[in-house]
Amino acid sequence: MARQFRVTDQVFFDIENEDKPIGRIVVGLFGDLAPKAVNNFKVLATKGLKGKSYKGTSFNRIIKRFMIQGGDVVSDDGSGSISIYGEVFDDENLDTQHTNAGFVSMANKGKNTNGCQFIITVKGTPWLDGLHTVVGKVVEGQNIVHVIEHTPTDVDDRPMKRVFIANCGMLPTDPFYVSDDPYDLWGWIKASAVPLTMSFSILGFFHWMISKIDF
């Protein structure tokens, strides 16, 4: 049975590949389920901590058919850890499952070692369940996540091209719900509202043009 998650806030990441814009990822945050982790995530996506924020940080680990990892505001190579609570902070609500693509979780080095780094899944990853704190889900730009996923990597899963967060911040948000159902029609409509509106406008224009043609 599909589960519903209340999105309390939204963070955007504008992604670039070296010096080429790729697109925007919007993450809906689950502030009710993981308030400490979400608060930490929001601070690092905005004003930052000690001059360090997600802006300018790289996706330093990419594994196809698994996940992309980034958010190391300390060293930008996957070795750093910092949070608004200290170097690390405790896990929260490990009951949330990684049932499909788009779940955003805190990366860690074991129990209660959350810091600044995060992962975004590209498929269901049940082996992460009970081990990683889920902070949210991608509500826009999962296609961009898959573009990052297919960046060439070396034998250590390090991208051979730098893919990084060129800009980030918060978006105004009235709380809403998202589903973990990959066939959630309403979620698809919400994510596609602008393109669909444009498509229908174009179709309407051509329909009007055809109606004016005498056959």
From TrEMBL:
GO terms for cellular component: cytoplasm. Residues 12-170 form the PPIase cyclophilin-type domain. Keywords: Isomerase, Rotamase, Signal. It is an enzyme of class 5 (isomerase). GO terms for biological process: protein folding. SUPFAM superfamilies: Cyclophilin-like (SSF50891). PROSITE patterns: CSA_PPIASE_2. Its EC number is 5.2.1.8. It catalyses: [protein]-peptidylproline (omega=180) = [protein]-peptidylproline (omega=0). One of its GO terms (molecular function) is peptidyl-prolyl cis-trans isomerase activity. Coiled coil: none annotated. PPIases accelerate the folding of proteins. It catalyzes the cis-trans isomerization of proline imidic peptide bonds in oligopeptides. Acts on the folding of rhodopsin RH1 and RH2 (but not RH3) and is required for visual transduction. Belongs to the cyclophilin-type PPIase family. This is Peptidyl-prolyl cis-trans isomerase.
